[in-house]
Write a structure and sequence with these properties.
The chain has one domain: Rossmann fold, CATH 3.40.50. It is built from ten helices and ten strands. The protein is globular. The chain has 234 residues and is α/β, with parallel strands linked by helices. The protein has a six-stranded mixed β-sheet with strand order 6-7-8-3-9-10, sandwiched between helices. The protein has a four-stranded antiparallel β-sheet with strand order 2-1-4-5, with helices on one face.
Length: 234
């Protein structure tokens, strides 16, 4: 049964259309990857779920319709977002950045902070460090941790490996797997790194120029020419 449902979603920046009738479904407890080249519309798709773009179509989480709500309401309904842009407060400490994410789930602060520290021990060790002095990998950890502080029912993660060393990418992948296996998380990631997506997700949606051009399980799409075309052209 679908947990997150997107039906005929189109997104616009002014008069420019960035997404064209995109539909996808994510089951509870599933990791789904949206893959494609730079500019395919991956970040726009996640921004649209968070009401950060002008859209048409319908978005649902469980029985709740997200369409027409503002970002704060969407977070309260259970959508956590770790954007590729990070959007951290650079001169605030790691701990304070994490606590910013807890404003919609204040009753869960202790539990969620413990979960974040178990997943990212480095953040507990450096909780008083300003994020402006951290590496890209550490800032990605803070971004993920802050999203988890909202007590999300579904976690949206935008380009988690961009600009990161291979070793850090493996750490991020391990954390996302643990979130599903240990905490039952439902996760949607966008990725330019097809190998990362293939190693992590159960199903893929291939996005090209704002259109879904292919969808299927990892095994079905691993050798599909449409996956290569999305990255390298026809």
């Amino acid at each position: 049964m679908s947990f997150l449902t997107i039906e005929n979603l189109s997104a616009f920046y002014g008069k420019a259309q960035a997404l064209h009738d995109v539909s996808l479904k994510v089951s509870e407890g599933e990791i789904v990857a949206i893959v494609g080249a730079n500019g395919a519309g991956k970040s726009t798709l996640l921004d649209s779920v968070m009401a950060l773009t002008k859209t048409t179509g319908v978005i649902r989480l469980g029985d709740a319709v997200l369409t027409g709500r503002n970002s704060s309401e969407i977070v309260r309904l259970g959508v956590g977002y770790a954007p590729e842009r990070f959007n951290l407060f650079p001169y605030m400490s790691v701990r304070d950045n994490l606590l910013v994410g807890a404003y919609t789930a204040r009753e869960d602060i202790a539990r969620n902070l413990d979960m974040v520290h178990k997943l990212f021990p480095r953040l507990e060790e450096r909780e008083h460090q300003e994020t402006s002095t951290q590496s890209g990998g550490e800032r990605q950890m803070v971004s993920l941790g802050r999203a988890l502080m909202t007590s999300p029912r579904v976690l949206l993660v935008d380009e988690p490996t961009i600009g990161l060393a291979p070793k850090v990418c493996l750490e991020i992948a391990d954390v996302l797997r643990r979130l599903r296996t240990e905490f039952g998380a439902t996760i949607v990631i966008t990725e330019q790194n097809a190998n990362f997506a293939l190693s992590l997700a159960e199903r893929l949606y291939v996005l090209e120029s704002g259109h879904v051009t292919a969808t299927g399980t990892v095994d079905e799409l691993r050798d599909d020419v449409r996956l290569a075309e999305a990255y390298f052209g026809h």
